[in-house]
Amino acid sequence: MFEISTEASFSAAHHLNCYEGPCENVHGHNWNVRAVVACDKLNDIGISVDFKTVKTALTGILSELDHSDLNTIFEPRGLNPSSENCAKYVYDKLTVSLSGAVCRVVRVEVTETSGNTAAFYK
């Protein structure tokens, strides 16, 4: 099994619903996202999947979130825009985006502040 990962970032605002504390107020983050994909084998030149393929798919998804209010994206789906829900959202979208590739999404990590990361994986 081979794994590769790539990272990208986006800036967005959100507020946490039903949270008691400063995060219940609208605030923003420079979010960092790391996506890990796995492949069973290498191609003829020794590559599992091109980093560019994964990075392009990831940045496309993050461009939808960049400079947005995450509440307007997550609340209609019945979700609080937590880091955990952001990680699952990106995981699900990336899985669809890479469905024709030779790899599968293994894990997505979302860091909203230095040292604070949430991940989603199956």
- Count the beta strands: 5
What's the story with the biggest beta sheet?
5 strands, mixed
Number of domains: 1
Q: Helix count? A: 3
Percentage of residues in strands: 35-45%
Strand order, biggest sheet? 3-1-2-4-5
CATH architecture: 2-Layer Sandwich
Please state the average pLDDT score. 96
As for the CATH topology, it is Tetrahydropterin Synthase, Chain A
CATH C-level name: Alpha Beta
DSSP helix fraction: 25-40%
Protein structure class: alpha+beta
Distance between the termini: 16 Å
- Return Rg in Å: 15 Å
Determine the CATH superfamily. Answer: 6-pyruvoyl tetrahydropterin synthase/QueD
Shape: elongated
Q: Which runs of at least 5 residues are low in confidence (pLDDT < 50)? A: none
Q: How are helices and strands ordered from N to C?
A: EEHEHHEE
